Amino acid sequence: MILPDPEKPVRLNVKYDKDASFLAGGLFTDFMISVISEDDSIIKNINPARISMKMWKLSTSGNRPPANAETFSCNKIKDNDKEDGLCAIVIVEVLPNQPVKLVPKIKPPTPAVSNVRSVASRTLVRDLHLSITDEYDNHTGIDLVGTIIATIKGSNEEDTDTPLFIGKVRTLEFPFVNGSAEIMSLVLAESSPGRDSTEYFIVFEPRLPLLSRTLEPYILPFMFYNVFKLFKLSQFFFLDDQLSQSIVMYKSLFEASQQLLNEMKCQVEEGRLKEAQLRNELKIHNIDIPTTQQVPHIEALLKRKLSEQEELKKKPRRSCTLPNYTKGSGDVLGKIAHLAQIEDDRAAMVISWHLASDMDCVVTLTTDAARRIYDETQGRQQVLPLDSIYKKTLPDWKRPLPHFRNGKLYFKPIGDPVFARDLLTFPDNVEHCETVFGMLLGDTIILDNLDAANHYRKEVVKITHCPTLLTRDGDRIRSNGKFGGLQNKAPPMDKLRGMVFGAPVPKQCLILGEQIDLLQQYRSAVCKLDSVNKDLNSQLEYLRTPDMRKKKQELDEHEKNLKLIEEKLGMTPIRKCNDSLRHSPKVETTDCPVPPKRMRREATRQNSVIPIVTKTLSCC
């Protein structure tokens, strides 16, 4: 029978508030990620740094994240981490935020009108569709009902010659239903007042009883001329609109190019800082990297250190030959003999012998798991459930040795005393193992030999209770003071029949592992820095190409021509006069501070469906 592996990850479980609303520009709800094993249990020793979340706008290209997907993680991801592993996709719909302004579906051209009999010459607007958006231009307010007030205004509030709509009125109302208003046409009255070659404005103000806040109106400028100038100047208005659109396109191109350039410069700066940081860390390990031919030098160093590490791993070291219990679920930790390691051979011998009757015991997290093993083995297997241990009597692992009283040395011991538990190292499940061995060993102390142990006990009992003492020579003095006899003398290592704690990986092997990890990170940092430098140089060269210089010249020419046309038309740029026309208060703002950049989730500003992929990088 093949049992499921409780340590092998097979899928991710993502929990979050599914009733939460994801508003543009708002904060995400919390996402709780669990890594599930083959036996459907949660793997608890996953490093949070190995879990990341990617976010991007959903497209027709499928569910695979694009290269520019924004990445969030619990900790900073190492540059050499692989982008493979398990993933879970969560698709959320980003909703519009609060209504802010009234905007046209399609921006109309600047009208040029007169007050003649011809309706076409007096028409200001045709088929104007107005709707409400939030501050990120997402359409919203589909449940709002009210009216749109269209008013003609001049630059000067005291102007008495302001043009009038048909019916000789300055104000018209239009119904606003389901978040939008359709204005089929707006026409000036025949023989309407108005000054020749003067710019006026139509201000469209929403009046929505269900909305407590005041929205930003839409303002459409228009020019008023007498009949003789109108035809001649209409072609200038056409050119004005064409040039304005071209300028917007050119400026968007240059702004995007500059933004990309700035981002590349930031990446280069970050790359240099990362390279310098890792170079300094390598110097702490006495590893110097030359400034030239870096990658070949790193590759050679890595090859040599990996070879040294492999040789150290191959060297024979003490190991426990007692068969471990097959973990049928995540509630089984294993046999006590396999839960800890001891570096010193003499200490390993006497501690293994002292715990000989417990070495074969299987430790479980729950009594249910222990009972299951008991039933499977017909009661032949020792089991120890952690949920049955009274933890208040367990020793404090930070407690000083008993020859210290109130932080001061009561007597000077001999034989290098140390708590036996402090000689143990735990490869996994440290907290659970501290509970197990805290209960089994208590405050047991180990010293060099029997003379040192007797001297220690004789002094300790003057001030407090003395725990069991072990010696590196294999002797034991029980907590009641009894010693001697075969039952208090450990046999040689070979007589323990493999029931001995194994030795940990040599410290030099761990040091080599740290150096290898640093070298791999440094290699990745150097390669990444080289890549972003090339990208930056390529972008700089592109901005200096004849094509880009030509576009810059065309932009300058368009701006000059636009300025000349607007001077001829007597127009005032809309951006300079909007503020004087808005008599309503600004959109309400709150006094709360702006959330940090990572928390604002810039990608949520567009009303769209965004898939969130949660990925564990360590699981292949």
From TrEMBL:
Transmembrane segments: none annotated. Pfam families: Ig_SMCHD1_7th (PF26201), Ig_SMCHD1_8th (PF26199), SMC_hinge (PF06470). It is found in: Chromosome. Residues 330-457 form the SMC hinge domain. GO terms for biological process: chromosome organization; double-strand break repair. Its main location: nucleus. SMART domains: SMC_hinge. SUPFAM superfamilies: Smc hinge domain. Keywords: Chromosome. InterPro entries: Ig_SMCHD1_7th, Ig_SMCHD1_8th, SMC_hinge, SMC_hinge_sf, SMCHD1. The keyword RNA-binding does not apply. GO terms for cellular component: Barr body. GO terms for molecular function: ATP binding. This is Structural maintenance of chromosomes flexible hinge domain containing 1. It comes from Pan paniscus (Pygmy chimpanzee).
